[in-house]
Task: inverse folding
C-alpha cells in the first residue's frame, strides 16, 4: 500500500514535470514551427505549379494540410533521430532538410539530374539522407518493419520515427510491428496520419473502425491522438512528450488531418486523397 502511494506520487510528479517542459517547448518554438510550416506549404505549392508548367505526368503525393505535423516533429527531434517514411513523405523531406537542399528536393519530384537522389527515386521513395531519413517506401507497411530494424541500431537516446497512414495500418505488418516494438521495447514513435482516405476509398467505405487507443492499451504502448492539425499547442505538447517517453516505451500517435488538393468526384463527397496535380484554387 505504502509503495503504491509512493509510486503514484512519483509518477504524478514525473507527468507534471513533463507537462511543464512540453509547455515551455511550445512557447519557445511556436513561431519557428509556424514559419517552418508556411515554408513547407509554399514549396509544395511551387512543386505543384512546376508540374503544371512542365506538363509532368509523374505522380506526386503532396501533403498540403500536413505541414504543422512535420514542422513540429522537425523541431522536437534530435540530431541522432532517424526516420522511416511512407510514400507521402514530401512534407518530412522538406521539414527535415536544410534550405540549401530545397531546390534539389523539388528537382527530385521531376526526376531532374541535379536532385536529392539524382532523379532515381522520385516522390514516393525520396529521402534526403543528410536529414536523418534512412528509408522511404511506396510499399505500404514496408517502411514500418524497416523502421524497427533502424530502431534496433539506434544510438543511445535517439528515437526512430515511423510514419504511416490510415490505409497502411490495414497491412498485417503494422500489427506485427507494434507487438515486436513492445516486446523489444524499441525507441520508436509510430505516427499515423489519418486523412480518412486510402487511394479512392474513405474509411467508412472500406473497413470497420480500428480503435488505435484500445489496440495500444492492449499491448501496453502509450497512445495519443492529435485531434486538431491546426493547433500547434496540441501537436507540439503531445509530440514533445512522446519523444521523451519513447526512450522507455514505444509510442503511437494518431493525427487527424485533411490532405488538401486532389479531385472532386462527380458522384460523391470531395475526395481529399491527393495523388494528382493540385488545383490552383485550393
Ligand atoms: C502493399 C501495398 N498495397 C497497396 C498499395 C497501393 N497503394 C498506394 S497508396 C495507397 C493508399 C495509402 O493510404 P494511406 O496509408 O492512408 O496513405 P495516404 O495516401 O492517405 O497518405 C495504396 C493502397 C501499395 N503501394 N502497397
Ligand atoms: Mg490515408
Result:
Amino acid at each position: 500500500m505504502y509503495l503504491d502511494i509512493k509510486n503514484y506520487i512519483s509518477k504524478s510528479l514525473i507527468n507534471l514535470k513533463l507537462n511543464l517542459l512540453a509547455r515551455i517547448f511550445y512557447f519557445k518554438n511556436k513561431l519557428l514551427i509556424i514559419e517552418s510550416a508556411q515554408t513547407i506549404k509554399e514549396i509544395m505549392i511551387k512543386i505543384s505549379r512546376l508540374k503544371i508548367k512542365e506538363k509532368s505526368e509523374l505522380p506526386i503525393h503532396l501533403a498540403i494540410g500536413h505541414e504543422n505535423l512535420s514542422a513540429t516533429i522537425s523541431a522536437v527531434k534530435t540530431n541522432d533521430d532517424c526516420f522511416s517514411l511512407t510514400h507521402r513523405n514530401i512534407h518530412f523531406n522538406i521539414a527535415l532538410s536544410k534550405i540549401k537542399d530545397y531546390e534539389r528536393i523539388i528537382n527530385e519530384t521531376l526526376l531532374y539530374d541535379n536532385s536529392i537522389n539524382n532523379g532515381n527515386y522520385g516522390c514516393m521513395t525520396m529521402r534526403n539522407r543528410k536529414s536523418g531519413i534512412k528509408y522511404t517506401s511506396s510499399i505500404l507497411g514496408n517502411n514500418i518493419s524497416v523502421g524497427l530494424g533502424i530502431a534496433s541500431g539506434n544510438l543511445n537516446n535517439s528515437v526512430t520515427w515511423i510514419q504511416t497512414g490510415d490505409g497502411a495500418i490495414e497491412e498485417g505488418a503494422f500489427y506485427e510491428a507494434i507487438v515486436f516494438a513492445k516486446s523489444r521495447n524499441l525507441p520508436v514513435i509510430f505516427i499515423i496520419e489519418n486523412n480518412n482516405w486510402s487511394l479512392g476509398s474513405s474509411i467508412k467505405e472500406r473497413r470497420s473502425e480500428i480503435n488505435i487507443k484500445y489496440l495500444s492499451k492492449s499491448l501496453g504502448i502509450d497512445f495519443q491522438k492529435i485531434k486538431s492539425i491546426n493547433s500547434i499547442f496540441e501537436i507540439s505538447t503531445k509530440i514533445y512528450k512522446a519523444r521523451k517517453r519513447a526512450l522507455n516505451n514505444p509510442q503511437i500517435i494518431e493525427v487527424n488531418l485533411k490532405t488538401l488538393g486532389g479531385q472532386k468526384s462527380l458522384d460523391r463527397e470531395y475526395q481529399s486523397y491527393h495523388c494528382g496535380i493540385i488545383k490552383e484554387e485550393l
